[in-house]
Structures are given as C-alpha cells and as structure tokens.
C-alpha cells in the first residue's frame, strides 16, 4: 500500500517534468546542440589524455611546430614539441573545473545574499544590495587582475577570485525574485502555521527561485571560463606547465604567423565551450518560463 | 461553555509619533469552544488587522498592539507578552488560520501531501509514515475523495474549492483550539462557498474548536456564526447573538449593511433599488468626531451624533450597540 502511494507520488513528479520543463528544453534545438557539445567536450577532456599516445609534458624537440595531422600529433605540436591535443584536453579539464567550481561558489554566495536581502528587506536588504551594487561598480576584469596579482596564482585561487567577483548578478536576480515571492499568500500561510524565518527562506522561497538560479548559474559557467582564459592569457592565472585554455593562447600569440594552429585550436575550444553553455542557459530560461507554455 | 480566547481592549495602531494611526480601537470579545464568532464589516473596518494582531503577525517595528489577548489553554497565556519563539510554536498549533485566496495560499513547488505532512511535522515529533497517514485522514475529513492519490498532486492541479479544502486540512492538522477564518469563501463560487461553510460547520462539531470568522457577507454570517460583532472604522459598533443582530439590528450601520446584500427578491428590480450606504469608511487619520458613522448615517442628528463620547450600551441579553439614538430609533420603528 505504502509502496503504491510512493509510486504515484514519483509518477506525479515525473509527469510534472515530462509534461512541461523537459519537453520545452528538448524542443529547444540550440540548447540541445549546446548540451551535446558540452558533453562531447567533457568526455574528450576526461578520456582524451589516456587515449592519446603522447603525454602533455613530453618534449619532442625534433617535432617542434608540427602542423596538425602530422604523424600521431592530430592537432600538431607547440614550440617545445609537446602534443597540442594532449595539452588541449588537459587544459580543458582545468578550465572546465575552474568554470564549474567558480559557478557553484558564486551561485552559493549570490543566492544566500540575494535571499537574505530580498526576504528581510529594510536595512538588511538595503545594506546587502548596496554592497552588491558597489561590487558591480568595479570593472570585473580589473578587480580580477588586481586580486590575481596579489594572490598566489593557482587553480584554487583563480576559482576563488572569479567567484568573489561574479556573484552579484545572481544576488540581484534572487533578491528581486524573493521580494515578489515573499508577498505571496503561501508565505503568509507559512508564517501563520508557525514557520521560522530560516524555514521560510530555504524551504518555501528558495525552491520557487530554482529556475532563474539554474539559468544564471549556467551562464555564469560560460562567464567564468572566459574570465579564467582572460586572466591566464595575461599571465596571472593558471601557471605553465599546467595548461589551461587561456595560458595556451598566451604562449601561442608570439607564433601567430608561423604556427597559427597553436592559437586557433584553444580559441575554438573556448568559443565552443562558452557558446554551448550560453545556448544551454537560453534553453533553460525558455524551458523554465511557464509562460511560453501558453503559446 | 469553555472560554478559549479573551480579547480585551485590543488597540492596534500603525506608524509612530504624530503619524500614528489607530486602526483598531478597544475591541473586546471572547471565543468559546465549539462556537463561532463572526466579525463583520466593510473593507477597511479593521477586521483583518484584528486577526493578524491576534496571530502577532504585524511587524513590531511598524505597528503597536495594546490591550490583552489571553489564550485559555492548559494555563492562561498572554499572547502579547509571549516571546517570538513561543508564539511561533503556538501558531498553526493552537491557533490556525485560513484566508481568502486559496489559489495562492499553497506553495506551488510542493505536492499537497508534502505540505500537509510538513505542517504536522513542524509542530509534532511524528514519523513520516504516521504523518502521511494523518494527512490521508485529513484529506478524507475535508471531503476530498480518493485521499491517498491526492497526496501526490500539485496545487495547480486542483480547483479553488479543493485548494481551500486543503488549506482547511492543513489548518486542522494539529487540532487547534482556535481557527481564524479570514473571508475564506469570498474568492469562491456561491455553490462551493456553501459547501465550504457546511464543511467548517461539520468540522467544528467534530473537533469542538472555536472559530473566529471574518466576513463582510451577512448571508455567510447567518449560516455559520453563533455570535456576531459588527465593526466600523476599527470600532465595535454592535454585538450580539447572530439571531438578535440579524433580526433586530439596532445600529443604523448594521441595518444598512444588511439591506445592501443582494437578495433574490431584489432581482428584476430597477437600478437604484438595491440600497447602498453612501460614502466610504473614514480613513483612520480623518475620523469624524463623535460617532464615526454619523456622516454616512441617515438618522444622524447634529448636536448629538457628532459629540463624543459615544459609549457602547447594553440593549439587553448581551446585545451591545454603539449608537446614541438606538432607543429613539427603535421606538420609532415600533
């Protein structure tokens, strides 16, 4: 008996997703393209380095600047004769990890600040949102570079400073969303049934803002990958010999006329990853917006 | 007759200093177990604020609640001097509330089963399985068929009447002493309205809870209330058993309100035949001197009605009225 009800409950939850959000997402061609690309890039980055015959650190002086498709070097080699494919995939691990970790961290910070600011409003809300605004006043790149110049440049630090400089958007989205939600009757109903502030914030309000948060988070990954590339390109980010898409570009710029693939290939990787995440974000935005169902 | 709640000289004001506005002025009543008290009045007469005041849900930085609200539980508890955390434990447990908009009163992201179960488990230590069993009982009790399957539905899959039934189920989950119903049927169809009232009457008989029923509709009052208080501009203007108030209203405002209810007999009559009370409830910062109703009252007498104070008087049998001319008017009517 209990199992039967359990079944019905899961069915109903499934039905909810099947009928609305998921179907709208699947219908979104660009989003699905993006998703397929990201999954592809992800698999290549995880599995690729094991399948390739060369280690990313192997130096083959004789094979320097081999163009793509020479021998076993499918993407060619760099100025020290290291296999570009192996480096690209390893770099992808680093760049994607930094992107995703920075997204998680900045979304957490942004969500909590937005939630508290939106729910309490008044002095607390004003102080927190003006703090958010003041962070937005600084051009993000300079803030990032300044911090990067002072701190030890490694993957962890880069993740941290990207997160610290990109939580503001999520905070604003969440606080705006919460401010409208907290006036709704089910919040009054929750207070009437004796719910605490924490309960209302995290159990009643937060699940209602999950849609916009997911969308913002997806777009934040794209932004974080770009930021990491930017900082590493300028030499303040991930330090060689550990590769990242950004510092591969940094090395490549001096050989742009003689070995253009050194810049083009990581460039394509960054573009592909960033656009894919943006497509997924757009798809999610449309899918989670119930209004598009009415059409 | 067991008293469950005593409200004494409840005065609620908003703002501070010079801009302080008194919205509810010296309201007194008691709630008895198994009985229903109706608070009747137009929009702006302070009836909803009264209920929020009892629940202590008005922001303390913006409002001031004075007087005494005593809950007669195992011991007498003065709600106004209770700490916020103890008050929170009482809300939903000893005093529950349902209100006007069943369409938006349920959280859209949880199933109704989850919401009922959470309501129980937030106040009682109970296993999920037992809480679930109780939820099924409750859904059954509020007259929704196929209770077990309903647990997994989301609010948007239910009609307005169904959602109000679920709200009632949540409110009754912990067998409260008091149910405050703030216009629970206003947003519903007339037929559904009748069903909900019937349901509330039946549940009251089953559980013996006291009900504070807030409405502007005398039709509803006649169906549900044992005693009735008519409020105007934040003051009680008439109180009595529902029968006396409905059959022998002493305050011109009460009779005016009753004549303004559309009835079947008035159907087909020309426009203007349905009576309305001219004007609006006065804004709290612009209260007329003397009887606050006198500018809209057809029986108002200059020199009498606009001179304070206007005390509330006993017209016999606990029928209270705040009108200086009720005796004259009653004699004229007879």
Secondary structure topology:
The complex is a heterodimer of chains A (295) and B (334).
Chain A: H1 2-19, H2 21-27, H3 29-51, H4 84-120, H5 122-137, H6 140-150, H7 155-165, H8 168-181, H9 185-192, H10 197-205, H11 210-233, H12 245-252, H13 261-288
Helix pairs in contact in A: 2-13, 3-4, 3-13, 4-5, 4-7, 4-8, 4-11, 5-8, 6-7, 8-11, 9-10, 11-12, 11-13, 12-13
Chain B: E1 3-14, E2 21-32, E3 36-40, H1 47-54, E4 63-72, E5 76-78, H2 84-90, E6 95-99, H3 112-121, H4 128-141, H5 147-150, H6 160-172, E7 178-182, H7 190-207, E8 210-215, H8 218-224, E9 227-232, E10 235-241, H9 242-247, H10 252-259, E11 313-314, E12 320-321, H11 326-333
Parallel strand pairs in B: 3-8, 3-9, 6-7, 7-8
Antiparallel strand pairs in B: 1-2, 1-4, 4-5, 9-10, 10-12, 11-12
Helix pairs in contact in B: 3-4, 3-6, 4-6, 6-7
Protein model, in words:
The complex is a heterodimer of chains A (295) and B (334). Chain A is mainly alpha-helical and 295 residues long. Chain A has a domain of 201 residues: MetI-like (MetI-like fold). Helices cover 73% and strands 0% of the residues of chain A. Chain A has 13 helices and no strands. Chain A is elongated. Chain B has 334 residues and is of the alpha/beta class. Chain B has one domain: Rossmann fold. Chain B contains eleven helices and twelve strands. In chain B, the strands form two sheets. An eight-stranded mixed beta sheet of chain B has the order 6-7-8-3-9-10-12-11, sandwiched between helices. In chain B, strands 2-1-4-5 form a four-stranded antiparallel beta sheet, covered by helices on one side. In chain B, 43% of the residues are buried. The model of chain B has no long low-confidence stretch (mean pLDDT 86). Chain A: Pfam families: BPD_transp_1 (PF00528), OppC_N (PF12911). Chain A: This is Oligopeptide transport system permease protein OppC.
């Amino acid at each position: 008996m209990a199992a039967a009800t359990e079944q019905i409950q899961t069915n109903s939850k499934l039905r909810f997703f099947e009928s609305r959000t998921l179907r709208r997402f699947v219908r979104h061609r660009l989003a699905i393209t993006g998703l397929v690309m990201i999954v592809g890039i992800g698999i290549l980055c995880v599995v690729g380095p094991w399948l390739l015959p060369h280690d990313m650190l192997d130096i083959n002086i004789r094979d320097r600047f081999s163009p793509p498709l020479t021998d076993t070097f499918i993407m060619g080699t760099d100025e020290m004769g290291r296999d570009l494919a192996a480096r690209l995939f390893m770099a992808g691990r680093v760049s994607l990890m930094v992107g995703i970790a920075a997204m998680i961290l900045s979304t957490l910070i942004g969500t909590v600040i937005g939630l508290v600011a939106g729910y309490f409003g008044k002095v607390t809300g004003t102080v927190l949102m003006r703090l958010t605004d003041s962070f937005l006043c600084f051009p993000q790149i300079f803030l990032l570079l300044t911090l990067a110049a002072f701190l030890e440049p490694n993957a962890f630090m880069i993740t941290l400073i990207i997160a610290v400089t990109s939580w503001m958007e999520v905070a604003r989205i969440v606080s705006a969303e919460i401010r409208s939600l907290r006036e709704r009757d089910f919040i009054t109903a929750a207070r009437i049934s004796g719910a605490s502030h924490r309960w209302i914030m995290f159990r009643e309000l937060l699940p209602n803002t999950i849609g916009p948060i997911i969308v913002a988070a997806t777009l934040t990954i794209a932004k974080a990958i770009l930021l990491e590339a930017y900082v590493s390109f300028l030499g303040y980010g991930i330090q060689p010999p550990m590769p990242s898409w950004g510092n591969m570009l940094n090395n490549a710029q001096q050989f742009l006329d003689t070995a253009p693939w050194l810049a083009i290939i990581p460039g394509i990787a960054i573009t592909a990853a960033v656009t894919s995440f943006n497509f997924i974000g757009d798809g999610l935005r449309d899918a989670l917006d119930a209004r598009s169902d009415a059409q | 007759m067991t008293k469950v709640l005593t409200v004494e000289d409840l005065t609620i004001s908003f703002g501070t200093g010079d801009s302080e506005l008194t919205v509810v002025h010296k309201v007194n009543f008691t709630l008895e177990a198994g009985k229903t008290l109706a608070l009747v009045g137009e929009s702006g007469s302070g009836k909803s604020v009264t209920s929020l005041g009892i629940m202590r849900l008005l922001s303390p930085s913006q409002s001031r609640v004075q007087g005494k609200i005593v809950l007669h539980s195992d011991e007498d508890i003065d709600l106004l001097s209770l700490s916020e955390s103890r008050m929170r434990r009482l809300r939903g447990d000893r005093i529950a509330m349902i209100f006007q908009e069943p369409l938006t009163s349920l959280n859209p992201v949880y199933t109704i089963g989850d919401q009922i179960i959470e309501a129980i488990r937030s106040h009682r230590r109970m296993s999920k399985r037992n809480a679930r069993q109780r939820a099924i009982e409750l859904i059954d009790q509020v007259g929704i068929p196929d209770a077990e399957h309903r647990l997994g539905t989301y609010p948007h899959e239910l009609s307005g009447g169904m959602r109000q039934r679920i709200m009632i189920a949540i409110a009754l989950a912990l067998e409260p002493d008091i149910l405050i119903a703030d216009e629970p049927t206003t947003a519903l169809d007339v037929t559904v309205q009748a069903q909900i009232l019937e349901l509330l009457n039946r549940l009251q008989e089953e559980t013996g809870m006291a009900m504070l029923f807030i409405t502007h509709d005398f039709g509803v009052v006649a169906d549900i209330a044992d005693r009735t208080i008519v409020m105007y501009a934040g003051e009680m203007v008439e109180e009595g058993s529902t029968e006396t108030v409905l059959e022998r209203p002493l305050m011109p405002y009460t009779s005016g309100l009753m004549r303004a209810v559309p009835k079947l007999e008035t159907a087909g009559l020309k426009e203007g035949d349905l009576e309305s009370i001219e004007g609006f409830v006065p804004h709290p910062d612009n209260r007329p001197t003397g009887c606050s109703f006198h500018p809209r009252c057809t029986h108002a007498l200059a020199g009498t009605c606009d001179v304070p104070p206007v005390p509330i008087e006993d017209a016999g049998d606990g029928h209270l009225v705040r009108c200086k001319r009720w005796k004259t008017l009653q004699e004229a009517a007879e």
